[in-house]
Amino acid sequence: MPTYTISQRIESQDLDVAQVTNELGIQPTQSRRKGDRRSENSVWEKALWEIEIFSDGDRSEWESLEAGLEELVRLLTPHLPTLKKYKKSCEIYLWCGVFDPSFGGGPRLSAETLSKLSALGAPVLFAIYPEMSKSEEEADSSLRSE
Facing residues of 42 across strands? Predict the structure, then answer.
């Protein structure tokens, strides 16, 4: 059975992540400034503010993509005016990590959920990963935060 990670991301060259946090009143689960170290040999080219939505609030992945997206919509809908302001100068998108142990199939979204997502006005990016063994997952823990 696939599992999902779901987040809202705001990126730009000159994003002030502290200002985004202050204006939205939401603590990000990940943030970085342009020029922060990405690895020993590289730096991030853009600043990022991200809020990841967790299942049951316990930092676990979702078993239902639709349920996770519904929770994201519930959290962000009151903040649409602020998000629209950032949309003018930033890249805003929904990021969905899909971790699937099988080949084929995929999530199914209702028309109602798609309509609610459309109201957010942000594209959805799907990052699809095959199932990894525990040792592979531990070796590449950065996979889910790219």
Answer: 39
